[in-house]
Amino acid sequence: MFKKILLSLLLSIYAFAFDYNLKPIKVSSDVWCFFGKLEAPTKENGGFMSNSCYIKTAKSYVLIDSGASYDFANQAYKAMEKIEKLPVNTVITTHAHDDHWLGNNFYKEKFNAKIYGPALINKEFNANSEIRGVKILSEENKKNTKFVAVDEIINETKTLNIDSKEIIIIPTGVKAHTSDDLFVYLPNDKVLFSGDIVMNGRVTSNRDGSVIGSLKALEMINSKKWDVLVPGHGVDTSKTAADETIKYFTLLKQRVLEAIENEVTGNDITKIVTMEEFKNKALYDELNSKNVFDAFRELEFYEEN
């Protein structure tokens, strides 16, 4: 009788657990990624909108961005176990936006993984923070999702040699997507993880960023020799992966500066600069006008060096 009750209880728990239906996609010889949806985070998609990637070394996995929740991280790891059952001893978080790190506590609890990331995460969040990404999760999905601090702050380039794998963590040193962004480079594999400095298939969100800084960070990324680039959002990992973001910020800068030169005001800037080439991209309606207005505020008194 007790076993039946316990089984019924377990079935009830699993019935309400959010199923992310995760399938790892192999993007290079030792890298698998889970690609997020090109839409805003919602209860219906479990907040899964950003990309999360596993790098396989000889004895472990290194994780780049842990995703939307504890359950997401748990299900991602179970999917990777089918490829090879290895521990995740190292987690690298590319920036402070929570859709990229809300799975960190799964890896901390299961493996006591060491978490590398920018200082901004520990500055902006703590165990008592109300986190935007947690608020949209279902009650069952948010149950185990909680903040854990970054263990080692990255404020200068750091090289990790894990087994035979060389992994370089590089801070941009400029305000780009946020005021504190990292990207990750595997020189021998020619694979680069850009975080949200690069997105494709959708319009970027520049609410915490800088047009000028993003262009500088994109130059840094393109100075590296890579064959595969995994964006923070989007599924194009080819040699054209960064082109869309470069085009967006280049045109945004050019057009806003031209509008300012023509004495267009902040009240009218979003009517004049519309970035029509991107109107068929995901999240254009939600984000583009805000990006244009924020670019106007940034560039209103800008002078090219």
Using DSSP, what is the number of strands? Answer: 12
- Radius of gyration from CA coordinates: 20 Å
Low-confidence parts? 5-15
Beta-strand content: 15-25%
Instruction: Let me know the average pLDDT.
Output: 94
Order of helices and strands: HEEEEHEHEHHHEEEEEHEHHH
Helix-and-strand structural type: alpha/beta
Q: Helical stretch count?
A: 10
C-alpha geometry = globular
Largest sheet: 7 strands, mixed
The helical percent reads 25-40%
First-last Cα distance: 78 Å
Task: Record the strand order, biggest sheet.
Answer: 1-2-3-4-5-6-7
Write a brief structural summary:
This protein has 305 residues and is α/β, with parallel strands linked by helices.
Provide a descriptive summary of the structure in words.
This protein has 305 residues and is α/β, with parallel strands linked by helices. Helix content is 33%, strand content 20%. The protein is built from ten helices and twelve strands. The strands form two sheets. It has a seven-stranded mixed sheet with strand order 1-2-3-4-5-6-7. A five-stranded mixed sheet has the order 8-9-10-11-12, covered by helices on one side. A hairpin with a 4-residue loop joins strand 10 (182-186) and strand 11. Helix 2 (70-81) packs across helix 3 (104-111), helix 7 packs antiparallel against helix 8 and helix 8 (243-261) crosses helix 10 (284-299). The radius of gyration is 20 Å and the shape is globular.
Features:
five-stranded mixed beta sheet, alpha/beta, 33% helix, seven-stranded mixed beta sheet, globular, 305 residues
